[in-house]
Amino acid sequence: MTAVTLRGVSYTYPGAAAPALRDVTIEVAPGELVLLAGGSGSGKSTLLRVISGLAPHFHGGTFAGRAVVAGMDTRDHGPGELAHAVGTLFQDPETQVVTSTVRAELAFGLENRGRHPAQVARGVEEAALALAIDQLLERSTAELSGGELQRVALGAALAGRPEVVVLDEPTSQLDPVAGDELIGLLRRVNEDSDATIILAEHRLERCLGAADRVVALAGGAIVCDASPEEFLAWAGRQAPNLQTPGAKLLAGVGLPPAAGVKRARAALRRADLLPAGPDGAEQEWSAPRGAARSSWRARRRAGAGASAPALAFERVWHELRSGPAILRDVSLTVAPGERVALMGRNGAGKSTLLRHAARLLAPTRGRVTAAGRVALLLQNPTDYLVHETVAAEAPAPALDLVGLGGAAFAVRHPRDLSGGEKQRLALAIVLGDHGDAATRPAVVCLDEPTRGMDRDHKQELADLLCRLGAAVVVATHDPEFAAAFAQRVVLLADGAPIADGSAAEVLAGGSYFATETARILGGAGGALTPGDGAALIAQRAAAREAIA
Amino acid sequence: MIYRRRASPLHAARAAAGCAWCLALAIATLMASNPIILVAVTLAVLGGGVAAGVGRELCRAALWGLPVALVITVINALVTRDGLTVIVRLGDLPILGHTDVTLEATVYGAMLGLRAMALILCGLLYTLAVDPDEVLRLFRRVSFRSALSASLATRMVPILIRDGRRLAEAQRCRPGPPPSRLALMRAACTGVLDRALDVAAALEVRGYGAARRSPARRAPYSRHDIAFLASAAAIVAVSVVARVDAGAAFAAYPGLRLAAAPDAAVLAVLLAAAALLPFADRRGLAR
User: Fold this and answer.
1) Measured between alpha carbons, how far is residue A346 from residues A99, A230, A476, A492, B164 in Å?
2) Which of A287, A344, A334 is nearest to A314 (CA)?
3) Which residues of B touch A113 (CB under 8 A)?
């Protein structure tokens, strides 16, 4: 008996030229936690939509093959009937929450199934306790944070203990802490209730350690179906873009891949290659706020003799009327051409700080100054797209700069572009006429630009940001992306910077806001990328040999 | 302007009781033909809002409602030909013809305006203090899909407001001349459709498409349920009596006549007391 069986499933969206899934055959046993890997457009989301019955019942299109989920053939049973056995969670929690209180939200699915009120009440309590949201039950869904809302949406998917749970990038909008918590919760639910969990994610390093099995897709077809370690070994040979930083690090020192930080560290320890703890980085990480401020003062003093800053926040406060202070006495300077990553939990004040930089908000106290125009790309690139063609949206030099130049793109409708292309187009829009020195922005700010992006697109964006030449400030939850482009990282908490230093100092000094390489190596040597980590290990091994 | 659970007797009462109470106040507003009674109902609605912890929102709505009431007053004064006491002679006006503004038409217009504002406040009090999810549950046995559509429409309002703000912010970030209003309108409409599609997909996977009728939930009546249901019945009863008894004491046309009616004052006090008494009991508010 399997929880999910797909045999020769092919699916083409209505009006699409090519199928989104091609001859997919897979069996998932009850209680398995399966991770779907693959680049953007590889078919992960479509596979999940086939399992939940949305494809083809909701989307239409052409469906071939057979999909049986919890004993129900999806050709005969639509998503409404499949919902009795399948819990579904999409990327954006805001559009999944349909009632106004958390209790009603958790009860909604159970009531739709016609459960008795006593069963509904029990299902709600159990889901709330399992996800530790029992204290939120009477809260309005309109006043929850992104992390809380995603947890509530997960609770709604899990209420009534479905046999199968499908999740489409559930952590893409969460900070690293909330993301790790969500993956931990999933693992616990999987172990406690024996639910089959099928999870699509781009940040594989986050959930590979929790998975029983990994299914990789490319072009709508399954290209690998293996255990996490076997998948990593395959990715090392066939699909380097799917390899986790930890696996790359181990490969760099000649060890077989291991899934998760703990196993990677154990592998290095067994080979006697694990460097001793952090050297100096931790001091910077644990520096109190005063020290962070004095670091800024030192920067300002050092910068006083040099060129004027591209962007400066001087003791900026943002206090809501009858509400909390979102920014508290923030003082930061960004030098011309400097690339800065702003990190911190959801609600730490990152987006507000960027809005102040672009003058969308005015400080209630303090001052923000910029050496020229500040271009700001907000979280949702679709909000910028208002014209009928790509060419009408942005000037040609800006389109060329972001790689959307040429006749092929010029006539396309902006909303028909892929997620990564929309992001680049929105960037071109805010950059404006980049060829004109008078209107070229002095500072480019981006708010969470990598949400839902695969590794290749992130690298492309990082390269593009390095090429811009202007000062760049990016609010991001993604430490790997920050390590790829940033020279400096500012960590915000509760509206104030708590750490401000080079990327190596900040990203190697903790466990949540740290790259996987730094987590494996415990911050040793400030190594952030697999290449740096492998070089550090080789260097220390050579030093040990020399002493011996 | 959305429902949020607060520690008030009205929020603690079941949706049926809250609905009945708000509906009773609306009925009282429509039935009140005596200005004293109408003022009492309006004050009862405002007082209920303050006691329910939503007074600030109601006062803000009342401020927005004032121009509406004023417009109704002015229109009635301009178009009504009844009344004996002319206060302004406007002569011949285009469309309206010969226009004399009378005191009677102005007072009657003010009553209509006040009635409109009281109705708006009743509706707002319902929105702020009655749990829409419970209302959904209440009506789902009658017409589940209609009830859900209404509930979702309420929930979509704040989401679409947020979307609109985001769109406006994004356009402020564009260098150069702003896009045309038509382009913005098109983008906003496309965004709304995208949102609707997402919500529809979420509803499908939550079993909405194959929704079954669930058995009725029998929860015991709390002290607040009983108090608000009794209050609603009392409000309607007093309104009927006031309509019959005190209504005759007031006439706007041809000349203003507000006979000395101790009954009207007593009924006004009774009505306000019946409406506000349930708020006196503040036991068992938290859920």
Assistant:
1) 23, 34, 10, 10, 22
2) A334
3) 207, 212
DSSP letter, residue A332: E
The CB density around residue A276, as the number of other CB atoms within 10 Å, is 10
Could you identify the residue written with the tokens 């009596």?
B241
Alpha carbon distance A350, A352 (integer Å):
5
Cis peptide before A278 (omega within 30 of 0): no
pLDDT interval class at A287 (50, 70, 90): very low
- CB spacing of A95 vs B211 below 8 angstroms: no
Q: Choose between B223 and B243: higher pLDDT.
A: B223
Which residues in chain B touch residue A167, judged by CB atoms under 8 angstroms apart?
none
Q: Do A58 and B213 touch (CB under 8 A)?
A: no
| Distance set, CA A124 to CA A52, A150, A184, A221, B220 (Å) | 22, 16, 20, 38, 20
Residue with tokens 């209509």: B112
Closest of A78, A89, A85 to residue A48, by C-alpha: A89
What number of other Cβ atoms are within 10 A of residue A210's Cβ?
Answer: 21
- CA torsion angle for A483, A488, A491, A495 (degrees, to 10)? -140
CA distance B287 to chain A (A): 8
The continuous run of DSSP H or E covering A311 comes out as strand A311-319
Is B129 exposed, middle or buried, given 0-12, 13-18 or 19+ CB atoms closer than 10 A?
buried
Tell me the chain B residues in contact with residue A416 when contact means C-beta distances shorter than 8 Å: none
Residue of A213, A155, A216, A259 lying closest to A2 (CA atoms):
A213
CB A390 within 8 A of CB A340: no
What is the rounded (10 degree) CA torsion for A120, A122, A123, A126? 160
DSSP sequence for A8-76: EEEEE-TT-SS-SEEEEEEEE-TT-EEEEE--TTSSHHHHHHHHTTHHHHTT--EEEEEEEETTEETTT
Distance of CA A41 to the CA centre of its chain: 16
CB-based burial label for A295 (10 Å; 0-12, 13-18, 19+): middle
Residues 6+ positions from B213 with CB-CB distance below 8 Å: A114, B140, B141, B144
B231-272 tens-digit pLDDT: 999 999 999 988 887 665 678 888 887 766 667 888 899 999
Q: How close is the nearest chain B Cα to the Cα of A177, in Å?
A: 26
Helix (H, G, I), strand (E, B) or coil at A207: helix
In single-letter form, the type of residue at position A197 comes to I
| A182 vs A132: CA distance, rounded Å | 11
Q: Give the DSSP H/E element, type plus range, for residue A327.
A: strand A325-334
Q: Measured at the alpha carbon of residue B265, what is the angle toward residues B262 and B269, in degrees to the nearest 5?
A: 140
Integer Cα distance of A525 and A509 in angstroms: 10
Two tokens at B173? 């970030």
Closest to A172 measured CA to CA, from A135, A131, A200, A211: A200
Backbone angles phi, psi at A169, to 5 degrees: 45, 60
Q: Which residue has the tokens 């999806």?
A: A74
Task: Write the CA distances from A8 to A11, A61, A516, B5, B148, integer angstroms.
Answer: 10, 16, 37, 50, 38
The yes-or-no verdict on residue A304 having pLDDT over 60 is no
R_g (Cα) of chain A, nearest Å: 24
B38: left (phi over 0), alpha (psi -120 to 50) or beta: alpha
Both tokens of residue A42?
A: 């590889």
Strand ranges (DSSP E) for A391-546? 443-447, 471-475, 488-493, 496-502
Q: What is the pTM of this model?
A: 0.80
pLDDT higher than 90, residue A209: no
Tokens linked to A115? 């459960």
